[in-house]
Design goal:
Length: about 475
Amino acid sequence: MEFSVKKIVFLAIAVVAGVGLAIIPPPEGLEVSSMQVLGILLAAVVLWAGQVFPEAATAIIMSVLFIVVAKVPIDTSLSAFSGTTFWLLVAAFGLGAAIKECGLLERISILLLRLFPKSYKGQVLGLSAVTTITSPVIPSKAAKCSILSPLTRGISEAMGYKNEGKEATGLFLSYYSAICYSPAMFITASVTTAALVGMYSPEIQAQYTMVVWALYAAPWLILMFLGNYFYISRRYRPASGNKLDVSFLDQRLADLGPWTKKEKIMGVVMILTILMWVFKSQLGIPEYAAVLFALVAALVFDILPIKKWRSNVAWDSLIFIGCAVSLSTVLPAVGVTDWLVAVVGPYTAMFFANPFLMIAGLAVLTLAVRFLILSEIGYLSVFTAFLFPLAIAAGVNPWIVGFIMNAFVIAWFLPYQSSVYLTAIHSAGDGWVTEKATTMYCFVYCGIALIASFLSYFAWQAMGIWGV
């Protein structure tokens, strides 16, 4: 690993800022260990912002320093590793690798796309709908992009659209925008959303099951789906009504061959898993247990060979998530949460009292900080740890706060902000769409997301979930 001047500067800032904060005499209400934890956390944030070390390495350093320096018990510093969210992610990562390995997602996507009209608007609608429907199957947004991006390019070229033209850009944005907004509704559609679940209190986690989460998120997702569809289908529509040559999709199906035994088994396993999620209360099977059963089936039937499980699962990401999510137990343990509510709470009450100010403020905060902290989970783990207690003190449901932050965390104003975006734009090969045209759409996407959030407030109020 080479250290550039930038990394050395960020490392120096992290050490100076972290040590400086850690040795400051604690104000009333905090202890020495509280300042040490805050200093270590500040150093970790700077290291993440500067990408000095791999994310997982920084997270491990942070957790170990909590134990060694601040004397935080290991079962607190690494609490997430024994929690349900971590094991849900272990299973979801493995299932995603299994589904990609057997080719099930591509086959289902092609079969569904054939059902939609062959016009430009029909394909915009189809790509948006198919991506949304299949999004819970694989938690990795980048993995989904690696499958859907080449497929979408093939559709664009089969319809005769010029590469780097507005029509091709519109088709790209149809599926990519759905990649971005569908995780807000489906917990297993994104590693980030699954990690966010672990940042809530056990009471919130128990209340917002996968099905309940999806129901409460539905108003926002419906508005996002319609807003993006109508904008893309009008802004990027072609001058002439080219039709999709369905033989392209037929050829892709032919290339896949007949349904394999592994695809059939994986399909049955996923159907049973979804049924266990839906009937969780009747069956008494927790969601993470259902996904673990599905993972075991994928391993037993060799849909995901053990060697592929070792190599195709992002184990470093799992370690990073476990360490980062544990912040939700570390800060309360050293008294930071209670102090924050007592000292800062009165000044933020007005912010939380105005729902539109709160929504806009959280959106702006998320979009601004994401220019500095590239990790979606890193950002959420730090800021939810501080904002959730303040929201509860102000009488606002922390689920809403986390939902809004998660809705805007995917921003791709600049290519470097999102590895998912880079995967999407490059996995179909060079020369299809341009970075300039696709990154500019992020402004439109965020505008639609803000309007959808404002309108969803009324739905959440009617559902009775805005307040605590």
